[in-house]
């Protein structure tokens, strides 16, 4: 029972750095059914490609969706550079993705612990916008598109945590004494994470295919979690927790606990980008 308590405390604490920017216009243009994107390189070419996609939206849901799939990959790739800046895409209301900021996550168990993690920064996800890391799978029966975005170099999540743990309650159920308190810095590294976006599209008379809603999920291979004291002082409880978190299964459980709050940080930005990105091509290419 004590083991469960300690894992839960660590879970409260959770809600890697990307490579140097690469200009998506350096990639070889491609041609697909209905749209020719084999144009010259540069910001102007990227904007022309996105405008051609915007003009084709009225045909997307009535076709085999190959145009739609390619256009969504083009949109995500074109957004890469701006989403690495501090301003992100202000015309769309999309914040910077490098890092992505998540305000706070709260996890509570009235019988064992309460805790919060605040000021979460997710580093490394911008790499997932590049074409080699994006896979788009359309459904041929409806307007559902599944978009998988992989961050091949992993993620690093940093934040501040505070927890109150009622350790003795795991041994003495009716114990009503004061809790043990622990706080400090949360530091996690996640290997091979993939964000899956299920986007439902409907046909708008004025704009063609538009996003009706998105659902997100998150998968990864391994995770490593460390809890640190802000003043680098020895803390017996932190030492104990970090020793337990060396078990990869425990670190995975910690990240899984944080996932719903992290996904909420991604939900609105991804909806705005997929829904309105083709209407703000100048903002995306920085012209």
* Overall 3D form: elongated
Quantity of strands, as a count:
11
CATH class: Alpha Beta
| Uncertain parts | 1-40
Series of H and E elements? HEEHHHEEEEEEEEEHHH
Average residue-wise pLDDT: 78
| DSSP summary: helix tally | 7
Query: What is the level-2 CATH architecture name?
Result: Super Roll
Classify the oligomer. Answer: single chain
Name of the CATH homologous superfamily: TULIP domain
Number of domains: 1
Side-by-side strand order of the widest sheet: 3-4-7-8-11
CATH topology: Bactericidal permeability-increasing protein, domain 1
Rg estimate, integer Å:
22 Å
Helix share, percent: 25-40%
Work out the strand percent: 25-35%
Structural category is alpha+beta
Signal peptide: 1-19
Keywords: Signal
Pfam families: JHBP (PF06585)
InterPro entries: Haemolymph_juvenile_hormone-bd (IPR010562), To_sf (IPR038606)
Outline the secondary-structure elements:
Layout: H1 2-12, E1 31-32, E2 35-36, H2 43-60, H3 66-78, H4 80-83, E3 100-109, E4 113-123, E5 134-138, E6 144-150, E7 155-165, E8 180-190, E9 194-204, E10 208-219, E11 223-228, H5 236-245, H6 248-276, H7 281-285
Antiparallel strand pairs: 1-2, 3-4, 4-7, 5-6, 6-9, 7-8, 8-11, 9-10
